[in-house]
Design a protein that fits this description.
Number of strands: 0
Distance between the termini: 25 Å
Order of helices and strands: HHHH
Radius of gyration: 14 Å
Helix content: 55-70%
Number of helices: 4
Structural class: mainly alpha
Length: about 90
């Protein structure tokens, strides 16, 4: 859960810096359009997450993101997949 909180904080900082959006005042059901993010903005958020955390949000799945809640759900799934992959790699090494 710690990683998800850090990612959310980074997204909030990004949205504040680039779109003047205070994420704390945004509903989870707010659409990307409501936030003023076009597809390029969503890809910028995905790039931020991949660059900082090494978590890739594949293009097909990121394209299906419609609300902020969808984005956070996708991030949760990808964080869990990343943890599972890391555990599997650790088991094969050890």
């Amino acid at each position: 859960m710690q990683v998800e909180t850090s990612i959310r904080d980074d997204i909030a900082e990004f949205l504040q810096a680039h779109y003047q959006i205070d994420l704390d005042s945004v509903s989870a059901d707010a659409t990307m359009e409501d936030l003023g993010l076009d597809s390029l903005g969503v890809l910028s958020v995905a790039d931020l997450i991949e660059t900082k955390y090494g978590i890739s949000l594949d293009d097909e799945r990121i394209a299906s993101v419609r609300t902020f809640s969808d984005l956070m759900d996708l991030i949760r799934v990808k964080v869990e997949e990343s943890k599972a992959n890391e555990s599997a790699r650790a088991e094969t090494r050890g």
